[in-house]
Amino acid sequence: MDNTTFNSTFNSSTNGTNGTSDGLPPPIPKSFWTNLLLPTLYLIIVVGSLYTFSTLYRKSQLSKTARLEPWFPAHRQRDIYLSLLHLDPSEESSAGDDEKKLKRVPDSVLKAALMQRALEDIRRIVQLRSSKQALQTLLQRGSVGDELWQRFLRAEQEMEAEVKDVVNEANAFAPNWGQVIFQSANEMNQNLLIKDRMKELQDKLESEKAWWEKKKAGIQSNFLKEHGVEDDVKSEDTAAATVAKPVEKRPGSSDEEGILVDVDVPTQSQGAGGSTKKKKGKK
Amino acid sequence: MEGPETFNQLSLSIDPSTKALTSPDATLASEINDLNQLHRILLTLDTPNQIPAPPAPVNPKRSVQIGKLRESGNAAYKKGTFPEAITLYNLAIRMASDRPGWEASGLVREELSALYGNRAQAYMAQRQWAEGSVDAECSVELKRVGNVKGWWRRGSCLREMGRLEEAAEWVKSGLEFERAGPDKGGVGELEQLGREIEKGLGKS
What we know:
- The structure holds two protein chains of two kinds.
- By secondary structure, chain A is mostly helical.
- Chain A has eight helices and no strands.
- Chain A has helices at residues 2-22, 27-67, 76-86, 89-92, 107-141, 146-173, 177-227, 233-275.
- The longest helix of chain A has 51 residues, at 177-227.
- The chains are: A mainly alpha, B mainly alpha.
- The interface between A and B is large, with 77 and 75 residues.
- Chain A: It comes from Meristemomyces frigidus.
């Protein structure tokens, strides 16, 4: 009895080994590749996501800087200059003008346009320099956001590129003009400022003259009234004639210096005599 | 500002005979005007390449002419013919202002400051205080330090016109500038004017 059970177990176990010893390699490589698949998949996912993230982030940064509002309004003189460079007047010459057709825009016009461009650049540079300090202070105190500072930095960079561009263009017209052009443009700017200021001051001349005439008439009528009331008719007539004018003008002058008008009459009569003697020597 | 590679193409056209620029765009009118004027001036230049000369060594022709006009103005003033002096000074001022823009602005300042000052003096001799005060103000505006005469002239014009407070303030700021300046002798005169103005103010 024991023998049979032992035999049957022995048989079955050999049967089992007999079954497995028949099939060979395939099942083992299948699980090898599947084992390799998972890590590769993982690596692909990780690297892929990192790459996607970095490209998307860079794109968003670029678009953010592109959306930054420019610091200055459009640079007109630069546009004029570049439009002239690309202009082809021979295309547009209308009928009937066959003696003087331009093949291209003449150099002198381009030079003038370049000088105007340099002038505008100088103005912008001066503006940037003067606002830099103030902007830094505001930024430190936290009154303005970072975006303003970014816009400012971008404007500075663009300005430098623009200056280099202008110098190169100038050198193309004449040797070494690049160094000189910005000096000339600076002087032009200063001279224009001087002219504007002088015009401002000289424009005040009209109002000053009118004010002084009013005042003189007022003082004269005062004088006449004080001293010429009991005299002959002639002085009365003149006093009456001049009374009409100052009556409407005295309110005007007395608004500002009412006290002075009365007190100044005696000083004015003294001053009139005294000042003629006070002449400064001429240069 | 657009990027370095881009620009706005503007609609410009150039007239072949006069070589003047025109544009249908009305907003560009002033810039186009300036350009055309500058272009005309450039065409008259006789430097090589028709390029504006560097600002440093200035062509002395114009300065000599201005100097001559100023001398004749001074002579007329000494003779006592003030209207003639004023006309001569006007001419000199116009000549100095019409200098091409790229010549040294410092020189322009000096010339104009002296000319306005002399014209102010001529106006004062004719007791035209308003014109004198404006011209003296221009002179000081162009040259604040070392210009005692300018400060003094406007101060006395204001005083003659009865504007004593303005005159007092003016003289005070003039003294601040001139005390730091080279002309210490002139400061004394300005101080005296200031004292006289104070006296006038004190009385009222």
